[in-house]
Amino acid sequence: MNTAQRVLAAGLSLALLPSATLADESTRVALVPGGPHPYFAAWEQAGADAAKDFGLGSADYRVPQKWELGLQNQMLESLVTQGYNAFLVFPGDPVGTVAIANELAETGAPVMALAGCLKDPSEAVFCMGTDTGNSAYLGTKELLKQLGDGAKIVHFTGFLVDPNTQLRIDAVAKAAAEGGAEVIQVIADIDAPEPAEEKINAYLAAHVDEVDGIVTTAWVPAVVASNALRKIGDKRIVMVGIDHDEVVIQAIKDGFVHGTMLQNPYGQGYIGSFVADRLRSGCTVKADAPFKSNALTDKFIDSGTVFAGANDVDNYVGSMQSITKVLFDEFESTYLDC
Amino acid sequence: MNQKFWQSEWFGPLLITVTAIVIVSSLNPSFLSPFNIQILLLAISVNAMIAFSQMIIIAIGQMNLSVGAIGGMAAISFGGMMEVWGIPWPIAAVLSLSIGLLAGIANGALCAYTGISAFVITLASLSIFKGINLGITEAQPFYDIPDTVKSLGNDTFLHPLPWLVLPAVAAAVLLWYLLFRLPLGRAILAVGGNEHAAALSGISVPRIVIVAHAISGLLAALAGIMLVGRLQIGQPTIGDDWLILSFAAPVIGGAILTGGHVSVAGTFLGVAIVAIITQVLVLFSIDPFLVQVVLGGLILWAVGINRYREVRAHRKIAAGAI
Lengths: 338, 322
Hints:
heterodimer, A: alpha/beta, Rossmann fold, 2 domains, six-stranded parallel sheet, B: mainly alpha, ABC transporter involved in vitamin B12 uptake, BtuC, two-stranded antiparallel sheet, about 75% helix, about 0% strand
């Protein structure tokens, strides 16, 4: 864990000091991403903090070795035999993961889809994550505020197998159309450093003079594009990134990037672990809980997103704290019957 | 050695490379801009090392599925040693190369002395090396990469030639010299051509297998270290995408997967073809959902052209002999 993440985790943990005291020490929560990715790293500290703050038996972060559905399923089955009895899962596939989620639920374990949703119907109690379409839309709007009519923008985004990618592509296109801008290129499947480095740099090498703005909607492309703009030394191109990687934050401070759309992985893991325990303690999800809908599910909870520009970037931890605190304070009364 | 140059295995890839450059640059002149050449050479330099790492194993008639895992492990070791222990980068680089070398020796020894196929051994070691990678990093990158390393990974020594071209060219020359001028290299190709015959002629097959895997591990580690400089972070996912390229480039370059025949120049050109194809897909705004399909199709096309040329050449030779 790097310095920024430690500060973030400590800050959030202190700020959220728990109200719940009826925790069950037999609760063992597993937080399982689809594969290794820096976005999910905050889940580890979130689980540890939740276990400590709410008196859970444990809330452990378990990472499959690769982004492969079969590997994730095997890990989840293995975790059941190891005694885990609550599961917070980023679905390796929105449809493919439904079967294993239902199997887990049949053991009596609460299952939540975190950071990405399962396709309805499923036994997951709800899906909590960034409203990715909204985040991409707001990020593009922030970008277009800096550009005039007829601006030409490019969109760098994540894995094509991630259903969020199409939502992001659509949202950026919608915001661009509303703002009188043109999306001249979408480069996808680059949420890994090597293809991102090769494709983003190749694109900018050939088209740097034709581009007015860049919007990135995945972690690695944001990092690579920040570095590319620094390398080119171009402050004419306006860029809005995503997430809080050190490289992006520093590029904002140095004026190479206009701002970033912060997401809330820590809040997802922390609140998800808390809710898992409450559900095991007898709480139920309210029948009339005000869930939102997205393309996959009608049981969606937005874990929050906020834009951090040059003026906010020094206090980005505070920005993330505040969205988590708002969600946490009202979660039990809004979504649970206890 | 009397073979005419247009009959050599690298002539086909060279023809495809030159044709592709001419066509692409005529359609999009920015393709030959100094900055784009620099970007292209950066990609080719690292990818050549990855392809060479697999090529040397293909030469002995085996395959190494753990090339990416070794490269990734060396990369995060390099980044981790500099960030966590504050080790100067040259020492960290040497230690990381040693890790790659040891991983290769372990692969080779297991293949040579257990009788289990390299496919199975390297499939298992892939999992072990990747597991070590994730255990060390917990999927978190190492960020504190010294400026010198970043500079070596991105800057040029003679515009637009990047520093990373130098180790790639050096590796190519040394590999060519090893394979085609030294007894050890001849032994590697002999083992790949016919392991039984090589053993009967006095070659220690286990020793050759271990040496080939050791070289492969060393080259994979070097690729990992180069990528840390290029990406400016010690990213745990380094190596995850290497497998297809590591086979595609040597095969495009004329390597025979059953062993005994590889081409250093052909492999280098195979890497260039894949890099150009990748760039073309970006430059011509191919629909992102079709990129993989087009890339696969173009690689098949490139391999097919080369194969067709080889078959025609052999037919002509056969006809001449009659």
